[in-house]
Amino acid sequence: MQSHKLLITGGAGFIGSHVVRLFLTKYPNYSIYNLDALTYAGNLENLKDVEHMPNYTFIKGDIKDAAFIQELFQKEQFDGVIHLAAESHVDRSIANPMEFVLTNVIGTVVLLNAARAIWNNNFDGKRFYHVSTDEVYGSLGEEGFFTEETAYDPRSPYSASKASSDHFVRAYHHTFYLPVVLSNCSNNYGSHQFPEKLIPLCIHNIKHNKALTIYGKGDNVRDWLWVNDHARAIDVIYHSGKIGETYNIGGFNEWKNIDLVKTLCKLMDEKLNRQPGTSEQLITYVKDRAGHDMRYAIDATKIKRELGWEPSLQFEEGLSKTIDWYLNNDEWLNHVTGGTYKNYYVSQYEKR
Ligand code: NAD
Ligand code: TYD
Known about the structure:
By secondary structure, the chain is of the alpha/beta class. The protein has helices at residues 14-26, 66-76, 90-95, 97-119, 157-176, 198-207, 227-240, 257-271, 301-307, 315-328, 330-336, 340-350; strands spanning 5-9, 31-36, 56-60, 80-83, 127-133, 180-185, 187-189, 212-215, 221-226, 246-249, 254-256, 283-286. A 7-stranded parallel beta sheet has the order 3-2-1-4-5-6-10, with helices on both faces. A 3-stranded mixed beta sheet has the order 7-9-11. Helix 1 links the parallel strand 1 (5-9) and strand 2. The radius of gyration is 20 Å and the shape is globular. The N and C termini lie far apart (52 Å). The relative contact order is 0.13. The structure holds nicotinamide-adenine-dinucleotide and thymidine-5'-diphosphate. The site of nicotinamide-adenine-dinucleotide has 30 residues, from helix 1, helix 4, strand 5 and strand 7. Nicotinamide-adenine-dinucleotide binds at residues 9-10, 12-16, 36-39, 41-42, 62-64, 84-88, 103, 107, 131, 133, 162, 185, 187-188, 194.
């Protein structure tokens, strides 16, 4: 594709910044526009190493602002959209569901309307890619996996808002023939993740000798995928995924929270030259998350079979690289854990 104009929303966030970096470096002939409202989770420092690239433009803006988005699409005439901007943290959705409805549902529909208006039924070479989560499928027991056919059963305000946005994306395909593609991915980990999610929060707290808060008994299971592997999957799906289709993305890598946190403690003891067992003493069991989903596990055979994608990295290696990144990027951590983070931290954990 020559001079392809691609809008990536949420590109200053965790996954978005990895996607922007991959596309900027892999497709120098594309013009990449990163639209981000720079909420607490968005950080332009995540893209410091690539922001000078001639094919990159940052636009500060809110996907909820319909007039602004319509004008932007009219002006830039994007060929494609990869939509990642969202409120993404379950605990915040429990504290404030409405923000999730506004950004995740309304914001997505605002983007769909803007794409529909500029493409005006001329869909040749056009694509709207909606990035979603496995949490829309609900919670598994000990057996089974989420496939693309699993019925939606969201249980948190976050997953309900993402499920709703997925439905709107599919509805715009069926009703207006908008050329959409979707993916639902499992939990990501890696560099540049805001330290409110389990892995970066634990790394940060082990380093500072703070409590590692385990919700409930710690026996909830998540399927972890290295963020760069998610970015690779997004690349493959954007270019080769079939219009109207959904692809599940996962790591085939299930871990109980408590086992994962103990593994992190062990690796951190080694890297910080602490006595074995030191960091585990920080583990503190706290009140369970309301409506806490027990188990997520993705069956990612469709994307492997049809598009040839599979995870590239073993978990222990990925965790080790991730810890090294946080230990070597003090300045980034200090910046994102300043200010409003402190208020959030106190309200979430110190009063739990
Ligand atoms: P994140 O919270 O790190 O980043 C979200 C980004 O969106 C931030 O840069 C933020 O500033 C921006 N944003 C938020 N509201 C906005 C608005 N109204 N207008 C414009 N920009 C706005 O999230 P993430 O973990 O990188 O997740 C990205 C996407 O991937 C989300 O759609 C999420 O649902 C999905 N996803 C995440 C995971 C995961 O494990 N993190 C797994 C599967 C799917
Ligand atoms: P999280 O990283 O918030 O992702 P999600 O809720 O989207 O899966 O949480 C991952 C798991 O870790 C989840 O089961 C909740 C649990 N958890 C804790 O036990 N303690 C914590 O401090 C956090 C943030 C999460």
